[in-house]
UniProtKB/TrEMBL annotation, chain A:
Its cofactor is Zn(2+). Residues 24-352 form the Enoyl reductase (ER) domain. This is Enoyl reductase (ER) domain-containing protein. GO terms for molecular function: oxidoreductase activity, acting on the CH-OH group of donors, NAD or NADP as acceptor; zinc ion binding. Belongs to the zinc-containing alcohol dehydrogenase family. One of its GO terms (biological process) is lignin biosynthetic process. It comes from the Eukaryota. The keyword Zinc applies. Keywords: Metal-binding, Oxidoreductase, Zinc. It comes from Linum trigynum. InterPro entries: ADH-like_C (IPR013149), ADH-like_N (IPR013154), ADH_Zn_CS (IPR002328), CAD-like (IPR047109), ER (IPR020843), GroES-like_sf (IPR011032), NAD(P)-bd_dom_sf (IPR036291). The lineage of its organism: Eukaryota, Viridiplantae, Streptophyta, Embryophyta, Tracheophyta.
Automatic annotation (TrEMBL), chain B:
GO terms for molecular function: mannitol dehydrogenase activity; zinc ion binding. SUPFAM superfamilies: GroES-like, NAD(P)-binding Rossmann-fold domains. CDD domains: CAD1. It comes from Linum trigynum. This is mannitol dehydrogenase.
């Protein structure tokens, strides 16, 4: 049997932007999505955030990409149809989908609302769904997802600036809670002031922490202090500065996805302090054993969060008026945005105006006829 | 830096074994100890365990040694004198001193009973005491120590086999408790079956854990299971064995002090598992980040324990009949013992019979 082309696999036509090879070049892509099942929610995509993981994946930097690859896991939109068993949302509701669209729902992790740790987790894109088909993400006109993976957007949360929270937000919120770094009065550092970092500063301040931003770029100091509300700023290559701040921190959220030295960061921690890695360098880091032994410090990892916690995070963000700082683009700017993202040239998340980009394509197509 | 006239520094003559230079060769050494202060406990040293740290220090492998260096921080003996303000001990008591003899006593760490994490913690040997003098350790005939840093050795524990608990014991006990690996039914791995490792197996079993020993030497399997009570054994270089055991351990205590790959160990952990380093390789280890993120795992460290916990550990050991497996040696065997220790040729801790064999020339 001939392999079906992506727009024939499922009954409902869909449209988006996908990469066809590791060059990572994104171009218009016709495909299809399943019909709305009993537990499914179908929604028109209005916005989709561009996460650095999207860039890693379209270029196959982690080695497990399958093409065509349609990224996007910070997806926000409006419900158009719900399956017969859906109770959480109704047509017209504002919803989002993050990094996950499925799991086994029966293992210990799933039972503990930690779908993200399920060995059979299904990711929003570049994963195999339960029906054996490839999952395609949010750089597309509409999404279908199981109710369990739908996040409700509170009334007061703007969809464009709220979308990035679905990955960046939960990625920093979850470890702050899990590792006990969300108590008022704690002294927390955020390393790296990008998509993850700037959101981490906002959450940490909302938790009542004193926040220090650690960055390689002295130029980011003013933004960190004046715009994001950080309490202090350290340049990570300035050893004298770092030495003066030794033993001052309860915890560090390290968002940096390139290889970098841990020794100076560990030195900043008090005894029992925790360095949480949420960025994913491809190569191993150097761990000086003495730095964790002296002071009983820990280096830990964290990876997004489960669905229950993701909803909790969005609700917390809405209550504290936390959204991402974004630059809205249209899909025709996508490849340029990716180039800029590779250089860290964005404050601090690109968000694709999907609805208007799709409208543009429709307009072009009808005009050509 | 060489101490000036160590014999005359303090009023009380003392005698021990010291390394004079990074060759690490130990030889007789006359020095002196301070008079018993108001809060001090003075005791005759009966036994002193040989810790691998002693070997690192006599050879200046960590770069922090000053000579002459009298090692020894697993020291037990009998009280001969107490200062006027001493409340916890009296003459004749069986006591011990471990890795520290002082701290600032006022920082958060000291107030929370973790003097071992005080930035001004004073080591039992090769440290600088409050009076500016170098500290000398337990390869010596007598110790004088502030009451706060002295522990009572319970009557149920023989002095010689209890001595190593003062470093090896607390080094394993503390992280088993702190990292929550002390609950019955937990599955704990112990990497390395030496001085630290064998005591770790005993404590973990007593706390109710299922214990897997992970070692490079298949030859240690029988001992691990039959003598120390481990439930299973993994040869770390056997890829198939390691693969089959992936995702089975709640925690691992890694006692290995040489550089070694930790990625396979992280793979053995269940989701939310903890790898705790207590061995101290001098060079950095390779930390693969993806496995930590994907399983929300941690790599942590631990360094001995506070005084309160050290006493608690000894009391726990007494209750559960836990002592180190030792080879008692005479003082004149110490250099040979160090050579054997370097090759891991000891089951599992040398203990110097100080009282009977350390004699002035």
């Amino acid at each position: 049997m001939a392999k079906k082309s992506p727009d024939e696999v499922h009954p409902v036509k869909a449209f988006g932007w996908a990469a066809s090879d590791p060059s990572g070049h994104l171009s218009p892509f016709s495909f299809s999505r399943r019909a709305t099942g009993e537990e499914d929610v179908r929604f028109k995509v209005l916005y989709c955030g561009i996460c650095h993981s999207d860039l890693h994946c379209i270029k196959n930097e982690w080695g497990f990409s399958t093409y065509p690859l349609l990224p996007g896991h910070e997806i926000a939109g409006e419900v158009t149809e719900v399956g017969s068993k859906v109770t959480k949302v109704k047509p017209g509701d504002k919803v989002g989908v993050g990094c996950l669209v499925g799991a086994c729902h029966s293992c210990d992790n799933c039972t503990a609302d930690l779908e993200n740790h399920c060995p059979q987790v299904i990711q929003t894109y570049n994963s195999i769904d339960v029906d054996g088909t490839m999952t395609y993400g949010g750089y597309s006109d509409h999404m279908v997802a199981r109710e369990r993976y739908i996040v409700r957007f509170p009334e007061n949360m703007p969809l464009d600036a709220g979308a990035p929270l679905l990955c960046a937000g939960i990625t920093v919120y979850s470890p702050m809670k899990y590792y006990g770094l969300s108590e008022p009065g704690m002294h927390i550092a955020v390393v790296g002031l990008g998509g993850l970092g700037h959101v981490a500063v906002k959450f940490a301040k909302a938790f009542g922490a004193r926040v220090t931003v650690v960055s390689t770029s002295p130029k980011k100091e003013e933004e960190a202090l004046k715009r994001l509300g950080a309490d202090s700023f350290l340049v990570s290559t300035n050893m004298d500065q770092l030495k003066k701040e030794q033993f001052t921190l309860d915890g560090i959220i390290d968002t940096v996805s390139a290889v970098h030295p841990l020794l100076p960061l560990l030195g900043l921690l008090k005894a029992n302090g925790k360095l949480i890695l949420v960025g994913a360098p491809e190569k191993p880091l150097e761990l000086p054993a003495f730095s964790v032994i002296m002071g009983r410090k820990t280096v830990a990892g964290s990876n997004i969060g489960g669905m229950k916690e993701t909803q909790e995070m969005i609700d917390f963000a809405a209550k504290h008026n936390i959204t991402a700082d974004i630059e809205i683009i249209k899909a025709d700017y996508l490849n340029t945005a990716m180039e800029r993202l590779a250089k860290g040239d964005v404050r601090y998340r690109f968000v694709i105006d999907i609805a208007n980009s799709v409208a543009d394509i429709y307009r072009e197509t009808t005009q050509r006829k | 830096m060489v101490a000036n006239q160590p014999e005359k520094e303090h009023p009380m003559p003392a005698f021990g074994l010291a390394a004079r230079d990074p060759s690490g060769v130990l030889s007789p050494f006359n020095f002196s100890r301070r008079a018993t202060g108001e809060k001090d406990v003075k005791f005759k040293v009966m036994y002193c365990g040989i810790c691998h740290s002693d070997l690192h220090m006599i050879k200046n492998e960590w770069g922090t040694s000053t000579y002459p260096l009298v090692p020894g921080h697993e020291i037990v003996g009998e009280v001969t004198e107490v200062g006027r303000q001493v409340e916890k001990f009296k003459v004749g008591d069986r006591v011990g001193v471990g890795c520290m003899v002082g701290s600032c006593r006022s920082c958060d760490n000291c107030s929370n009973g973790v003097e071992n994490y005080c930035p001004k913690m004073i080591l039992t040997y090769a440290g600088t005491y409050h009076d500016g003098t170098i500290t000398y350790g337990g390869y010596s005939d007598v110790m004088v120590c502030d009451e706060h840093f002295v522990v009572r050795v319970p009557d149920a524990l023989p002095l010689d086999a209890a001595a190593p608990l003062l470093c090896a014991g607390i080094t394993l006990y503390s992280p088993l408790r702190y990292y929550g690996l002390d609950k019955p039914g937990i599955h704990v791995g112990v990497v390395g079956l030496g001085g630290l490792g064998h005591v770790g197996v005993k404590f973990a079993k007593a706390m109710g854990a299922k214990v897997t020993v992970i070692s490079t030497s298949p030859a240690k399997k029988q001992e691990a299971i039959e003598r120390h009570g481990a439930d299973s054994f993994l040869v770390s270089r056997d890829q198939e064995q390691m693969q089959a055991a992936m995702g089975t351990l709640d925690g691992i205590i890694d006692t290995v002090s040489a550089v070694h790959p930790i990625m396979p160990l992280i793979g053995l952990l269940k989701t939310h598992g903890k790898l705790v380093l207590v061995g101290a390789p001098e060079k950095p280890l390779e930390l693969p980040v993806f496995p930590l993120l994907m399983g929300r795992k941690i790599v942590g460290g631990s360094c001995i324990g506070g005084m309160k916990e050290t006493q608690e550990m000894l009391d726990f050991a007494a209750k559960h009949n836990i002592t180190a497996d030792i080879e008692v040696i005479s003082a004149d065997y110490v250099n040979t013992a160090m050579q054997r220790l370097e090759k891991g040729d000891v089951k599992y801790r040398f203990v110097i019979d100080v009282a009977n064999t350390l004699q002035q020339a």
